[in-house]
Design goal:
Length: 326
């Protein structure tokens, strides 16, 4: 009798494993189904363009004779990559400016989006309305609205010296705050001028920060809502303050999303149409230097990959992954 029971158990075990494996395969197929449109578009549309760009960056264009039309490519190796730095002194300068902008954008956007996500996660009347308001810039900042914002004639007029004469005689009057205001505010706090300049720039750039913080804010908000409320109740019973709860519970629990938002912000900053490097590469291409602009684009792409890898490695060292008990 005992042997029969063992045989029945051994016979039923493979069937159970097969069912679990079948469920995993169905989930995997469903995942591939959702990413299939992107894969088809990448292989059919983007991959040939990437290949042509790489070939052009390693080649030199020779136009055909007059009346024949067309052109031919001559392989020259990494000559265009060397020329991007040697024959064009502005390209290296634009790269440095782009990295400086990135170093400013990442902390500002992450801090602002996390702060607003924490505020919007509180229980208050009209919470859904406020969430929608802060996410609206993500919707209107695409397409024609982005073009209108980039060509805001009124804003440029008000910010120029030809605008309304307020007696100042400079464009600094159009800024929200000035470094002089914060220097007076922090005079007795012994705050360095670098911090003052950073805060001044962030406040005067608040429009762009809000416009580019909607996705990060939404990700942070979903991470905050995924934290078990029982953890906060335990902290409250133990007498932990709100400040201690944030740094000991909230911040470690959402640290994986800080990594995600950090990587997203880097890529969004590098590919933004207002990025100085992207604008300079487009300007070089419009001047007829197709091979040189292709080489610049690939140099910029490699720099983006390196920066993403470095930032990802740094952020990963401080990420807390909660382990579920098995």
């Amino acid at each position: 009798m005992t042997n029969d029971v063992k045989l029945n158990k051994s016979a039923s075990a493979p069937g159970k494993r097969r069912k679990i494996a079948s469920l995993d395969r169905r989930k995997a197929r469903a995942g591939w189904f959702f990413v299939l449109p992107f894969l088809i578009g990448f292989v059919v549309i983007y991959l040939p363009m990437i290949y042509d760009s790489l070939v052009m960056s390693l080649s030199e264009i020779h136009m055909a004779e007059a009346g024949a039309g067309g052109y031919s490519l001559e392989f020259v190796g990494f000559k265009n990559y060397v020329d991007a730095f040697s024959s064009d002194p502005l390209f290296a300068k634009r790269l440095v400016e782009g990295l400086q902008t990135l170093a400013f954008d990442i902390p500002s956007i992450l801090i602002f989006s996390l702060f607003m996500a924490v505020m919007l996660n509180q229980k208050m009347a009209g919470r859904a309305v406020f969430r929608s308001i802060f996410f609206v810039p993500v919707i209107i900042s695409t397409g024609i609205m982005e073009t209108i914002a980039a060509q805001d004639i009124l804003n440029n007029y008000m910010g120029s010296t030809d605008g309304i004469d307020d007696g100042s005689g400079s464009s600094a009057a159009s800024e929200l705050v000035s470094s002089m205001d914060l220097q007076m505010l922090f005079a007795n706090m012994k705050v360095g001028t670098e911090i003052v300049d950073y805060v001044v720039t962030a406040i005067n750039n608040i429009f762009n920060i809000v416009n580019r913080s909607g996705v990060q804010m939404l990700i942070f908000l979903s991470a905050l809502q995924s934290i078990n409320p029982a953890i906060y109740e335990s902290c409250k019973i133990d007498g932990a303050t709100s400040w201690e709860t944030f740094w000991k519970i909230t911040f470690p629990m959402i640290s994986p999303m800080i990594l995600v938002n950090g990587i997203y912000t880097i890529i969004d900053s590098f590919t933004n149409s207002q990025n100085v490097v992207m604008a300079y590469i487009a300007e070089t291409y419009s001047k007829g230097s197709e091979v040189l602009s292709s080489a610049m684009a690939w140099i910029y792409f490699l720099i983006v990959i390196v920066v993403v890898a470095i930032i990802g490695a740094i952020f990963s060292a401080f990420v807390f992954y909660g382990r579920k008990s098995e």
